[in-house]
Every structure is written in structure tokens, then in C-alpha cells.
Write a structure and sequence with these properties.
Layout: H1 6-11, E1 19-21, H2 33-43, H3 46-59, H4 67-79, E2 83-86, E3 95-101, E4 105-111, H5 144-162, E5 166-173, H6 182-187, E6 196-203, E7 209-210, E8 217-226, H7 242-256, E9 265-272, E10 283-292, H8 295-316, E11 319-328, H9 335-348, H10 355-367, E12 383-385, H11 400-404, E13 409-415, H12 435-457, H13 459-473, H14 495-505, H15 518-522
Parallel strand pairs: 4-5, 4-6, 6-13, 7-12
Antiparallel strand pairs: 1-12, 2-3, 3-5, 8-10, 8-11, 9-10
Helix pairs in contact: 2-5, 2-12, 3-4, 3-12, 5-12, 7-8, 9-12, 9-13
């Protein structure tokens, strides 16, 4: 997902066509006894949430290489009575944890991977890396699965005390920044017996939405060109440059942009440009994200890429093949489930921010040249949804889209980060191991726990969710995977990068037995501003 404040990015280009529902009926001013028990159970785990959040932040691992994060979180669940199946869908860092028995089966998911070159000391309102050049949590994915685990433990406790049947499952979104795994989870059958999915993503507000047409889907394709090596000075005519083909493909795509739809987003990097200047490159690769707003246009854009690759190969007398490194269907969120999530956000409300929290946020916003608005203190009172397709001009992606077209799915945004900062950037890590994140995770966990309990105890809600899924969402649109039968998870991604940085990062892993918070371990005065 793009953005440290996903709601802002999510609404871009769609707000004008949004349907705003009136405040929903049944939104009690005060929690029921059952709801209060859940809220208290989550609040009692606030310290555990802080420790887990700070621990994952300190690992700062990139997609497919989340070994420390995955091991730690799976162990927490096993210690609390969950069974864990590791190696989910053939992905070493993926797993599915399960507790309980019988129906309904409700699964909770969120992501755990970081961003390259995003190392940043938390609580410091200017660029100050923990390890210069290393990866870090420059989006806030250290917090979402923590939120889900805390909410699941609270509901598990309540179910045990009250003899309730049902199954809770928890899974990590591996390599979400590469959009590289959830389609494989679906293909491997992990969602066939699941009745609903509760997803969570970090934001700067507490909220949700319903429907589709709010983000892009995409396919991630790496084109590998194959030529012939030769001496670059003595006999370059004997060579066939794969790098020439890569550069010509880039030129071709850039010229083609003028004649593509406004909704498309095509961006790429050269991952292999050869070895050294005096050797004609026999191998070269370029990696593109082809984003569009529906399946048909994604496939058209991909076909355009293939045609341009053919032209580049013809011009250079080279050959090519391609690898799919990831994919994401456009997201569609379930309306009845969103209504339930929305009611619960209204019940929970935003955290109470301290003067220091606001001071950090405003200082960072000023540092970045943005309006110093601080942290949000007021929530909207209307549920957003029903974005028309004609108003969707594209944007970010999240591979939860594949799951949302197979199982009724909700998405909770929770206020663990700040508004008016930069996505996929060191600034998006500043809040993520501070009281801002700690409070935001607890607020989100309370909302998610209330929703999870509702899904367990209100069969009419689950029935409504499936009615919407069958009769509205999938009535005319059916899921067809973007990944091909021969494609496999690209588990090698980021391996070399983490090999470079892991040993430098390890001395900074959080030690909760010695330090109360990660801020304390790093010796950071909160907040640190210019």
C-alpha cells in the first residue's frame, strides 16, 4: 500500500464521486457490557502491544526476508494457544495461525515488511537513521499484525470464558511492498473455508470504507533480455547488447505513455544493466509495475509491455522472457462489514494525544515543508463508499485485493502514523515506535476486536456480508488470477539487500527485558525536534 496516511492516498481522485452514508443506526453512545469487556481486555494488553510494535520496528526487514519478525510473532501466538502452520503457500516467512473450532472462521491479516533505505530513529523530527542506508519501517507495517494479535487474544479470552464456538485465524502479509504473496495464498486454498477477513492497515485516522473503484490493481513483471557478450572495444560488433534492449524498452514505454489511459501508472527500475563497461552485456533486466483500475485494463497494459519488449528484442537481435514477481486485484470491500467496522470506530474514537505527540507531528510536518496540522483530533461521522468507476483515476495498490474477491473483506485504518508526511520514506517511520503508534495500535485493536466478536456472534451480519459478496460484488465480475500457472513466489527478492544490512541492524534490535521502550533503548528524548 502506498502512503503513510493511506486514507489520503486512497481518496485521491475518488472523493468527488463518493457516496456518504448517514451515521449508521444502532451506534450506541455507550458500550454494552459485552463491548466493554472486550475494550477492557484490549486495554489490559496495551503494554504487550507496545513491546511487540517496537520489536518489529527494530527488525526493519524487507519483503520475503521477514524472518525475525515472522518468527517472533508466530511464537507469540503459539505461546497463547494458537497452532501455527509455517511455510504457507511455499513462502518461508509466511504462516497461518489458528485457534478455536467450528464455524464461523474469521481471519485477521496485516503486513510486516519494511522499505529500502528507510532506517530512522523514532521520535526524531528530522532525518536521523539508526543505520545509514539500511531498510526500516517507512510505512508502518510494524504495527498492523500487532493490532490483530492483541484484538484476537482479547476475543479468544472472551470466547473461552463464555463458551463460544468459532475459529480465529491470523496471517501475515509477506512482501506487501512487492505485492507478491496474497494471490499465492488464495491459489494455495488458504481462504476456501474462511467466512470473512478483517484486514488492517496503518493510517493517520480511525476509519474504513466499502466498495471498489478506489485504488489500482497491478501486475509486477520483470523482463529479462538475453544477448551475446563481446569485448566492448576490440569487437563490439560480435556482441548483442541486452542492455540496449532494456533501454529501448524503457524508451518505447515512455513514448507510449501519451497514448495510455489517465488511469494507468507504469513505473520501473533496471535491476541488471550488465557487469562492466568493456563487456557487451549479455544479460539485462528491467522490472515494471503495470497499474490499472480493473482486470481487463491491467491485462491490456501488460500486453502493451510485451509488445514493446518484442520490438526492443527485434531492434537489438536479442531474446527475452519475463517473470511475474507479484500482482494485486483492485480492492473491493464488503459493505455490511464496513458498516460494522464504522460503528465500532465511532464507539472507540481517536486516542487522546499528548502535547509531546502533537509537538513531534507538527515539527516533522514543518521539516518536510507541509502544513503543520499535527495529529487528527476529530473523526468523520459518515461512512464512505460507493465510488463510481469513472472517478477512479488510479493510485496505490494492495494485494489484499485478491483476497477481497474470494472472501468478504473489511479494511480498518488506524491512527498509528501522522498526516502530511511522505509515503515510502524515512518520515513515515518517525512515529512508528513512539506513543503515537502505541496509542493508535490500541485504538485500532479495540475496533478490530469489537468487529471480530460481532462476526463471531451475529450470524445475520455474516449472512448479509455474503449476500453483498454474491449478489452485488461478484454478480457481474468474477475473479481471475493475474498470476500465471507457472509463476511462483519470488522468495529471493531482497535477499542480497538484507544480507548486506542485517548484521549492522542486529545490535539495534529491541531488548524489552532491559528497556521499557525502544525510545529508551536508543536514548531518544521524546520528542526530539530542531
Amino acid at each position: 500500500m502506498q502512503a503513510p496516511a493511506p486514507l489520503k492516498a486512497l481518496f485521491r481522485g475518488a472523493l468527488l464521486g463518493a457516496t456518504l452514508l448517514a451515521p449508521l443506526a444502532g451506534n450506541a453512545a455507550e458500550p454494552t457490557a459485552q463491548q466493554q469487556a472486550i475494550l477492557d481486555a484490549v486495554q489490559s494488553r496495551a503494554k504487550q502491544a507496545q513491546v511487540m510494535n517496537d520489536m518489529i520496528f527494530s527488525f526493519g526487514e524487507l519483503g520475503f526476508q521477514e524472518f525475525e519478525s515472522s518468527r517472533y510473532l508466530a511464537q507469540v501466538l503459539e505461546d497463547n494457544g494458537f497452532t501455527v502452520e509455517r511455510g504457507m503457500a511455499g513462502i518461508p516467512t509466511a504462516w497461518m495461525a489458528s485457534w478455536g473450532s467450528g464455524k464461523p472462521v474469521i481471519a485477521l491479516g496485516s503486513d510486516i515488511d519494511g522499505i529500502p533505505k528507510a532506517s530512522q530513529k523514532p521520535g526524531v523530527a528530522y532525518h536521523d537513521p539508526i543505520v545509514e542506508g539500511a531498510p526500516g519501517h517507512g510505512e508502518g507495517h510494524n504495527s498492523g499484525l500487532v493490532l490483530n494479535i492483541i484484538s484476537a487474544l482479547a476475543v479468544k479470552e472472551y470466547m473461552e470464558e463464555n463458551g463460544l464456538k468459532g475459529t480465529i485465524r491470523i496471517w501475515p502479509g509477506i512482501a506487501e511492498e512487492q505485492l507478491a504473496t496474497k494471490a499465492y495464498y488464495v491459489r494455495a486454498g488458504y481462504f476456501k473455508d474462511i467466512d470473512a477477513v478483517l484486514y488492517a492497515h496503518v493510517g493517520s485516522d480511525l476509519g474504513t470504507m466499502w466498495g471498489g473503484n478506489m485504488m489500482s490493481g497491478m501486475v509486477s513483471v520483470k523482463y529479462n533480455f538475453h544477448g551475446v557478450a563481446a569485448h566492448g572495444a576490440m569487437d563490439p560488433w560480435s556482441g548483442r547488447s541486452a542492455l540496449d534492449a532494456v533501454e529501448l524498452m524503457d524508451v518505447g514505454l515512455n513514448f507510449r505513455r501519451e497514448h495510455l489511459r489517465l488511469q494507468q501508472r507504469t513505473h520501473g527500475i533496471i535491476t541488471d544493466g550488465g557487469d562492466q563497461p568493456n563487456v557487451v552485456p549479455s544479460e539485462a533486466s528491467v522490472w515494471y509495475f503495470f497499474r490499472e483500475t480493473d482486470y481487463e485494463h491491467i491485462m491490456d497494459l501488460w500486453a502493451t509491455g510485451d509488445k514493446i519488449a518484442n520490438g526492443a528484442a527485434m531492434m537489438t537481435d536479442t531474446t527475452w522472457d519475463s517473470e511475474v514477481l507479484g500482482s494485486a486485484w483492485p480492492i473491493h470491500l464488503n459493505k455490511p462489514m464496513a458498516e460494522e467496522v464504522f460503528n465500532n470506530t465511532q464507539l472507540v474514537g481517536l486516542p487522546e494525544w499528548s502535547d509531546d505527540d502533537q509537538k513531534l507531528a507538527k515539527a516533522l510536518q514543518s521539516e518536510l515543508g507541509f502544513e503543520p496540522v499535527g495529529l487528527k483530533t476529530e473523526m468523520g461521522d459518515k461512512l464512505m463508499g460507493g465510488f463510481p468507476a469513472k472517478m477512479n483515476y488510479g493510485g496505490g495498490s494492495d494485494d489484499i485485493g485478491d483476497i477481497s474477491w474470494n472472501v468478504p473483506t473489511s479494511m480498518l485504518f488506524y491512527p498509528a502514523n501522522m498526516p502530511n508526511i511522505i509515503g515510502h520514506h524515512w518520515s513515515s517511520g518517525v512515529a512508528m515506535a513512539t506513543p503515537i503508534a502505541h496509542k493508535g495500535v490500541v485504538a485500532g485493536a479495540k475496533t478490530q476486536a469489537l468487529t471480530l466478536l460481532s462476526m463471531m456472534t451475529k450470524p445475520e451480519l455474516l449472512k448479509s456480508a455474503w449476500t453483498y459478496f454474491d449478489e452485488v460484488q461478484t454478480k457481474d465480475v468474477k475473479y481471475t488470477p493475474l498470476i500465471r500457472e507457472e509463476d511462483q513466489p519470488a522468495t529471493w527478492l531482497n535477499r542480497d539487500t538484507m544480507k548486506i544490512w542485517r548484521s549492522d541492524m542486529q545490535p539495534y534490535y529491541y531488548n524489552p527485558e532491559k528497556y521499557d521502550t525502544y525510545l529508551e533503548q536508543l536514548g531518544i528524548d521524546y520528542p526530539t525536534i530542531r
